[in-house]
């Protein structure tokens, strides 16, 4: 119900379940903390955020861990859920994340008291390397971890030994890459305690979680002390709120000046975009627009983000573009749940959204790349920018319209375009965003010039070794500080 936009039904069901099964902590969490994946209005965001704030306080107060039975039930509950969707409200979540993180740490500490004490940094003996561990349920083809391949591939093997811990179980060719670039690769699927014991046994110097917040087991692991120094990165670009995570590995190009205010961790701004993203392979595209039932004379604006990245306060942007670009076609790849909002937004300017919005299902990667190549303009989402999708659009030389937000998660595309020195399509506000999108739609010569710039410079964005050098300098400094302390 939540995923399909039926939030009131979801809340009613969660309340009913918590009454019927009062000892099931999963339903207690859902009762208090469930939020929409899609908001109907800006006022909705305010309402549900306040509901979450109140619910979190109530959940914390009502969580008792006095008996072994209560401890186990709370553990089983947090094993099922994360608060992933909160961050799509586009607010600074640091205080709420800390409150939730403290709750998770209380529960984990009650169940695993042996794994909460600080760990001494292992002495680095002569000819030994610094042991770096990477733990994730997503060491396969997944947007939140694909960039990690570059960190491993360009690792300084003379000074570092890489351990990877794959706690999921969807191996694919990308998993083989992780294995290839690891000194030690451990596949421990869906076995929380075994994974923790193995990490501890390997006596790492530094443990890194590429993402925290999408997978419940990873959140649980991260709330324990399994290595002397623990870090997270922007696979999920939101602070964890966990006191057990020391550093957030981010990007100097993505973070605003006041960025530390958004994190409970110490923020580390790595060079450039902070990650070494492998250059996507773009095969020769043979399909045409007709294969996707798209008109040859249409100006195709690609809208390829997950539906929950589209916030209602920005719905007016597409009909404004359509009013000025009569041939505009907005192609959504995952956004059919947005139809009621789009209908209202287009009707507000006396347009029928069905004349402009197309919803496609693209199951094959080759077809997805074809849509990028066949499109004219990529419209980035405001507040939560495209990550992998923007990188792949740049690899397809597709002009991107973006507007950097207040938080790092709204500044991905902005940083990518700055790194390749194509700033022409970066807007400073919503009005300028519309102007740039309209100009790209109406001026094919300028659009071609932007595409050519991207083509000539896009290689600067991929397989970046400067960020890896910055990362490894940070690792050495951290270890050195511990050794000298």
UniProtKB/TrEMBL annotation:
Family matches, as InterPro entries: Glycosyltr_41/O-GlcNAc_trsf, OGT/SEC/SPY_C
Designated name of the protein: O-linked N-acetylglucosamine transferase, SPINDLY family protein
Every O-GlcNAc transferase C-terminal domain range: 124-272, 284-465
GO molecular function: transferase activity
Keyword annotations from UniProtKB, A to Z: Glycosyltransferase, Repeat, TPR repeat, Transferase
Pathway the protein acts in: Protein modification; protein glycosylation
Keyword Transferase belongs to the record: yes
Organism whose genome encodes this protein: Plectonema radiosum NIES-515
